[in-house]
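Weekly structure sync, notes
Attendees: PL (lead), two postdocs, one rotation student
Agenda item 3: pending single-chain targets
PL asked that the sequence for the first pending target be pasted directly into the notes so everyone works from the same version. It is reproduced below exactly as submitted, 115 residues in total.
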Amino acid sequence: MSSVFVYPRTGNKSRWEMKEETIYILFAKAHKKWGVQSQLVKGVEECAELQKEICKIYFGDTSLERQQKLAEEIADVELMCDQLEYMFGLAASIQAYRTEKLDRLAELLKKSGGA
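Predicted structure, written out during the meeting:
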């Protein structure tokens, strides 16, 4: 079974309002200015902030304000993931893993009678 899914950060150019080339220039500048170590730490920090917002919703705060904060933190994490993908040249690997994991999810749902 093969999923037909375009990885949003690499396959859907309309995802970004900026031109893809401009975004890659920004990523390259960030990499040059702060380096890999700093960007890795920033990625961890952004993931922690997203985790915090998920927990707040899990424990009952489903207000619109909280949902907007969740959206902001998801955007931060996605941007850091995009930068790491760019810095390490991981686009093809990420797409392959994403397809594999989506196929696994579809198979689990099929076996459990879901969807």
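Discussion points:
- The first helix runs from residue 8 to 11.
- The helical segments are 8-11, 20-58, 64-88, 91-111.
Action: rotation student to compare against the earlier draft before next sync.
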